[in-house]
Design brief:
Blueprint lengths: L11 H15 L4 E3 L5 H12 L4 E6 L13 E5 L2 H9 L5 E3 L4 H15 L8 E4 L1 H18 L12 E3 L2 H10 L7
Parallel strand pairs: 1-2, 2-3, 4-5, 5-6
């Protein structure tokens, strides 16, 4: 689960990420995040409440900002962003993205590109938050696909946009555990 480190506990998407972490953990899935605050903390918190063993964080070591959140049961810190990103992409049944900043967009683009270029097995990608993601997808359709033809129509079917934790669960349940290696 990916998303903004800046999202606070009163935010709609924080609450939805916490609910999703709980639903996933209750169903027996491990919840892996970047281990930091915001959306990451929310998902870890939800997982931790159900089964602490299901809460995992793959953190980045920054001088003044991100620290591993208190709901991570199993964590690992990385010095380099690229190493952390490889570990976050290494093995997942589903990649889930909540609203986030440049880091979240980078992580989304990386997984999307790996699947699009068949460097990675086709794995479900879910974008949570229609109001957040729809403008980006419209830009992809109008600019990348229609105006510049830099992607194909099938590339836009590599991900699904939903609005709730409950909508994510059937996608997860239909998916198969996969590894990048």
């Amino acid at each position: 689960i990916f998303g903004s480190a800046r999202t606070n506990a009163k935010n709609k998407w924080y609450k939805e990420a916490e609910k999703l972490g709980s639903l996933l953990s209750k169903a027996g899935y491990k919840v892996i995040t970047g281990g930091g605050p915001g959306i990451m903390q929310a998902a870890n918190k939800g997982a931790f409440k159900e089964h602490p063993e299901n809460s995992i964080g793959i953190n980045i070591q920054l001088p003044h900002e991100q620290r591993i959140n208190k709901f991570v049961r199993h964590g690992r810190g990385f010095y380099y962003f690229f190493t952390r990103k490889v570990m976050l992409a290494a093995s997942s049944q589903v990649y889930i993205y909540f609203p986030g900043g440049f880091g979240t967009l980078d992580e989304f683009s990386e997984i999307l590109t790996l699947i699009q270029t068949k460097k990675m097995q086709k794995t479900p990608i879910v974008l949570v938050g229609k109001d957040y993601w729809t403008p980006l997808v419209r830009w992809m359709e109008n600019t990348m696909l229609k105006k510049y033809q830099t992607i194909s129509a099938k590339d836009l079917k590599l991900f699904k946009i939903v609005d709730s934790a409950e909508e994510v669960m059937p996608i997860v349940k239909k998916s198969k555990e996969r590894t990048i290696f």
